[in-house]
Write a structure and sequence with these properties.
Length: 855
């Protein structure tokens, strides 16, 4: 409801007057609100002298202060002063010393004058902000009236707006850093954007997202957008969501670029690159530097066969994949035989007995949904079983490669032939792959694909079964048929639990081809003539973004990784000359005292950029790692004129050389500027040979430094090692030295030996294990000595027999309580019969017994 009040316009000069209107007595059900009183002021306009602001508005930079704001009257009073009150009534600026200072007050125009000033103090801050306003209003004049809006005598301006103009530069908006990286397991990634200096208004910038990674939930989630930093704050973050997939892929980038700043300018770091580091590493210590214990489930190679005379039975073949899936055969009728110098100077396991095979039962971790199998083989057979895996009698041969005359595959209940003959008595590299998801079933011979088909799509191989090499089982390690046994030579067998991508396949192909001097279709390493650099070849390379391998070491001590420019078609492979790792002080450049005698040769296809080279010096004594260098010769293999790359870091006995630029044909080795570094304990060989009821252990060293002693360790299960013998070392030597010791009490069945070397400072290293299969052939199965004795008696036999030793009189009385057990191992027990009187006694263990005479 609006009420109209009529004001009477008189002609009397008088002060401004007020009246109030008060609300009361509301109707039932209605309550009075807050504003129940309204005051109205009648400004007198009858005085001809009017007071007013000279200007309705003005402005000035905040660094100019004070500011005078003029007030005037239109008629001078020569006798009396004229006053008017003023106060800040509005605006966007903040008073009380923040943006300005101006308290309410009274402006006085002296008698005889027509003008005066209100003095405004402006605060000059360093904060970027919008221009801000101060509104000053006049009221309560004396000796005058406020000018009207007509105007009546002056300007008519009763309010003045002063605008404080910001002169501070706009702050810079930019990324805190230009790049960072992290594993794809880390999410979210908070990317900081900074504003400097702090601003008095909100600032923002647009950003766009690019890079090699795929957005929209594939590799990451982040759409183009805007980043805002509110007034008073100096930073905010963009949240990048990373998706952890299960795909082995190259590291990928997300690039975020700032543009279109609002209330800010762009700083230096307008682009930020985040590198997503792939965490599905395939491994770098497997064959050719491809795989590890997770992906490489079996790796048996000829150099791990126990060195024996030709035609000697093979009882075990050690698995070096890291999974201890050792192959074994305890039945002499089924054992393959060792033959040396058969293929490129290397031995083989020759299967020439009916129903011969080597078995792993159970095989823990056998591939179930993907598999890659390699083997190097020569045969003239047909209808034979080559690789046979059986999880149960009901599912015999869930994975079977058979019939060398027409290699066939039987997988998860289905079979097919490949029309590929692999007999003919020539060595070949055979490679088979299968994948459940699409049934992809392929065969390669010497690197060339000879068959591709589909088999058992969606099915899987049952885990926990038995693997037989060179035999076909129709139950778990049972139901073999002599007519299906393989007659031929196996040099190496490799099994992965994945289908190798094309780059990894090429690398493994080249590792095997170089090692065995075989010709393959994708030959990427030509420095492999016999007796040159064909040893322990490893490599990295890329066919495309889905087929690459960028980190490799293999069984050697040289690891190469982190290529800076790995493009499609680029490969780098390396192998060594198999020289001993002793000291060479002659063929070295100026400033170098010695280098390792062993040399690696590089073959590069394309240009992979720079790499990181790591060398495992666990077998070396390192005095000062700062004196280590990577020596690179680019022409003739002589290191006198070689270039030097200083060490970047040394940790865990790993010497790391970063940003190394290797070229095709380069020769590399590691060197030291001082004699204290490094002279290795170079183990040439370690062998175990069964002679009668003892195991003869022999080894040779090319050089030794600070070598205190050797320890012979033995195990039954491959995991729990027991120290059994100690042999003093030579200390320091550069000559070829030979050692021999005897294990007089070997373990019944298959056991393994290894050599541990310990320096004077306590550092140690161990050799690869060698296997022995021992079947005791002693009277009653027990050895008891000395006999006669006056006290201690040593009893040797099978571990089962020694579990319960009893001593009886010749009348059959049990006297075991009168003996003392001194010590016990798996095959030996020492007791004392010192408390027994002189005479003859019977020592019984299980079903074996021996007489002992107490003197």
């Amino acid at each position: 409801q609006t009420y109209t009040i009529n004001i009477t316009n008189d002609v009397v000069v008088e002060p401004s007057e007020t009246f109030t209107i008060t609300l009361s007595s509301p109707s039932a059900g209605i309550d009075l609100g807050t504003n129940t009183v309204h005051t109205y002021t009648i400004n007198d306009d009858d005085d001809t002298r009017k007071i007013y602001f000279n200007l309705a508005s003005s402005s000035g930079n905040e660094n100019i202060s004070p500011v005078n704001i003029a007030i005037s009257i239109n008629n001078v009073d020569a006798v009396n002063p004229t006053t008017v009150d003023y106060a800040v009534s509005g605006g966007t600026a903040t008073g009380s010393g923040t943006d300005f200072t101006l308290a309410s007050g009274t402006a006085t125009i002296p008698a005889g004058a027509t003008t005066t000033n209100i003095v405004l103090t402006v605060v000059d801050d360093i904060i970027y902000e919008l221009d801000e306003t101060i509104i000053i209003e006049l009221s309560n004049p004396t000796n005058s009236n406020l000018d009207g809006v007509m105007p009546l005598g002056g300007t008519g301006f009763l309010e003045h707006t002063f605008t404080i103009l910001n002169e501070d530069p706009a702050p810079e908006i930019e990324f805190d850093v230009s790049s960072s990286s992290g594993s794809e397991t880390l999410s979210p990634v908070l990317i900081q954007v900074n504003l400097d200096p702090v601003s008095g208004i909100d600032a923002s910038a647009s950003y766009t997202v690019t890079g090699t990674a795929t957005g929209s939930g594939t590799d990451y989630t982040l759409a183009n957008g805007t980043i805002s930093i509110t007034a008073g704050n100096t930073s905010n973050t963009i949240s990048l969501i990373i998706h952890d997939d299960l795909i082995n892929e190259l590291d990928e980038t997300v690039i975020i670029t700032l543009s279109a700043p609002v209330h800010a300018t762009l700083g230096a770091n307008t682009s930020y690159t985040y590198t997503i580091i792939d965490d599905e590493e395939f491994g770098y210590v497997g064959p050719g530097g491809v795989g590890d214990a997770t992906t490489n489930k079996l790796w048996v190679k000829p150099e791990d066969l126990t060195v024996v005379a030709d035609a000697t039975d093979i009882s075990a073949w050690s698995d070096v994949s890291g999974n201890a899936n050792h192959l074994a055969q305890s039945n002499a009728s089924f054992k393959p035989r060792y033959y040396n110098n058969v293929i490129n100077g290397k031995p083989v396991a020759r299967f020439n007995q009916a129903n011969g095979r080597l078995v792993r039962n159970p095989f823990t971790g056998f591939p179930t949904t993907e598999i890659t199998t390699y083997f190097v083989n020569k045969n003239g057979d047909s209808g034979d079983g080559l690789v046979s895996y059986a999880p149960s009698s009901a599912k015999n041969n869930d994975y079977l490669l058979f019939n060398s005359a027409n290699l066939s595959t039987y997988i998860a209940g289905s079979n097919t032939s490949t029309s590929s003959a692999i007999n003919g008595n020539v060595f070949r590299i055979i490679n088979h792959t299968w994948r459940s998801s699409d049934g992809q079933n392929k065969l390669y011979v010497n690197g060339t694909q000879t068959y591709s088909g589909v088999l058992s799509t969606g099915n899987s191989i049952t885990s926990g079964g038995s693997l037989a090499i060179a035999g076909e089982q129709d139950a778990v390690d049972a139901s073999y048929d002599a007519g299906q046994s393989h007659q031929g030579d196996f040099a190496e067998v490799i099994i992965y639990n994945a289908v190798l991508n094309t780059a990894r396949k090429k690398i493994v192909d080249n590792y095997l081809a170089a090692k065995y001097n075989l010709t393959i279709s994708s030959d990427l390493y030509s420095f492999d003539a016999p007796g040159t650099f064909e040893n322990e070849v490893a490599g990295i390379g890329k066919d495309d973004n889905n087929n690459f391998h960028d980190d490799a070491q293999g069984s050697s001590i040289v690891r190469i990784k982190n290529p800076s420019s790995l493009d499609n078609g680029d490969f780098l492979l390396w192998g060594h000359n198999n020289a001993d790792r002793s000291l060479d002080t002659v063929d070295v450049p100026i400033g170098i005292d010695n280098r390792m005698n062993r040399v690696w040769r590089i073959q590069e296809t394309g240009d992979i950029g720079t790499v990181t080279v790591e060398i495992d010096l666990d077998a070396f004594v390192i005095g000062s790692d700062a004196d280590l260098f990577l020596v690179i010769d680019s022409d003739d293999g002589s290191f006198v004129n070689s270039s030097l790359t200083a060490i970047s870091s040394y940790a865990g006995k790993i010497a790391t050389f970063d940003n190394v630029n290797l070229s095709n044909g380069d020769y590399i080795s590691i060197a030291s500027a001082v004699r204290a570094n490094p002279l290795p304990i170079e183990l040439i060989e370690f062998n175990a040979l069964l002679k009668h009821d003892k195991v003869e252990l022999t080894w040779s060293t090319a050089s030794e430094i600070n070598n205190d002693y050797f320890t012979i360790e033995r195990t039954k299960d491959g995991f729990h090692w027991q120290e059994i013998l100690t042999v003093k070392g030579a200390g320091n030597s550069t000559e070829l030295l030979h050692y021999k010791t005897i294990d007089k009490s070997p373990i019944h069945g298959t056991s393994y030996y290894r050599l541990k070397q310990t320096d004077f400072n306590g550092d140690s290293e161990t050799s690869d294990p060698v296997a022995i299969n021992y079947h005791a052939n002693t009277a009653h199965g027990l050895k008891v000595y000395p006999n006669p004795t006056q006290g201690n008696v040593t009893i040797e036999g099978f571990s089962k027999e020694l579990n319960d030793i009893r001593v009886y009189s010749l009348l059959g009385k049990d006297l075991t309580k009168n003996i003392q057990f001194i010590s016990k191992s798996e095959t030996r027990v020492v007791i004392s019969i010192a408390k027994l009187i002189k005479g003859t006694y019977l020592i019984k263990a299980d079903n074996s017994f021996q007489y002992i005479i107490k003197e």
